[in-house]
Amino acid sequence: MNMTARPIELSVHNAVVLATAPLLMIVPYLLTFSPGIGYLTFFLGASLMGVSLAGSSPQRPLPLSAQSGFDSAIGIAIFAIGILAGITGQAAMTTIFLVGFGAAHLALTASTRYSARGA
Fold first, then answer.
1. Are strands 8-9 and 112-113 parallel, antiparallel or unpaired?
2. Rounded to the nearest 10 degrees, what angle do helices 92-111 and 64-87 cross at?
3. Are the CB atoms for 81 and 41 separated by under 8 Å?
4. CA nearest neighbour of 99 among 90, 9, 49
5. Three-state SS string across 73-106, please?
6. Start-to-end Cα distance in the chain
7. Which residue intervals of the chain are DSSP H helices?
8. What confidence tens digit (pLDDT) does each residue in 70-92 have?
9. At 9, which helix (H) or strand (E)?
10. What is the pLDDT of residues 5-27, one digit of tens each?
C-alpha cells in the first residue's frame, strides 16, 4: 500500500464533509453571526454537501478533477470570508469559526487522494 502525501480515501473525505458541512449551515445562526455571513455560510455548507453527495454517487456525475477543484474553491471561500469578517470588525467567534473551518476543510482536501480506485 502506497501511503503518499494524500493518505485519505475519497470515500472518507466525502463522509467527513457530509458529517461536518451541516455545522457550517447551523453554527452561524446559533452564534448569531451577521445575516449576510449567515446566508453565505449556509450556501457554502449546502454547496459542500452537494459536491460531496455527487462525488459519493455510484454514477459519479461529477468528475474527480471537478470535485477536487470545488472542494478547494469552497475551502478558500470559507477561509477568506473568515478573514474578511475579522478585518471588518465582526465578532471574534465569527472569524475563529470560519477561518478554522476553512483551514480544516483545506487540510482535508489537500490530504485526499482524488482517484476512482477505492472510491
1. parallel
2. 160
3. yes
4. 90
5. HHHHHHHHHHHHHHHCCCCHHHHHHHHHHHHHHH
6. 15
7. 10-30, 35-56, 64-87, 92-111
8. 999 999 999 999 999 999 999 99
9. strand 8-9
10. 789 999 999 999 999 999 999 99
